[in-house]
Amino acid sequence: MAKNYSSKINRIRTFALSLIFIGFIIMYVGIFFRQSPLAMTLFMLLGFLCIIASTVVYFWIGMLSTKAVQVICPSCEKPTKMLGRVDMCMHCKEPLTLDQNLEGKDFDEKYNKKK
Ligand SMILES: [Zn+2]
């Protein structure tokens, strides 16, 4: 996988990775219900669904990364990718914005939401 994704993409990737772990844990718990085939099947199915969801999220990251804008951070002068109107530099956590109206304002996730 390509590196240098924005902090937002990194966060989504962490979420996808944890989904895989949760899926495996649920499947593992299912082993303790061997006496009840119904419960075991349910746990296995639930764990499998988590892993499927994680795959979907990974696919979504791929889509998002093509939309990310590459910018040079004004603070550390390293290239970083940003998503949406505001994002953080992935090297120095400097808040970045593409919107001139928001320049100088405090970093706020809500600027990304559509009104
Ligand atoms: Zn930076």
From TrEMBL:
Annotated InterPro entries: UPF0295
Transmembrane segments: 12-33, 39-61
Subcellular location: Cell membrane
Keywords in alphabetical order: Cell membrane, Membrane, Transmembrane, Transmembrane helix
Domain of life where this protein originates: Bacteria
Membrane topology of this protein: Multi-pass membrane protein
Family to which this protein belongs: Belongs to the UPF0295 family.
The protein, known as: UPF0295 protein WDJ61_04245
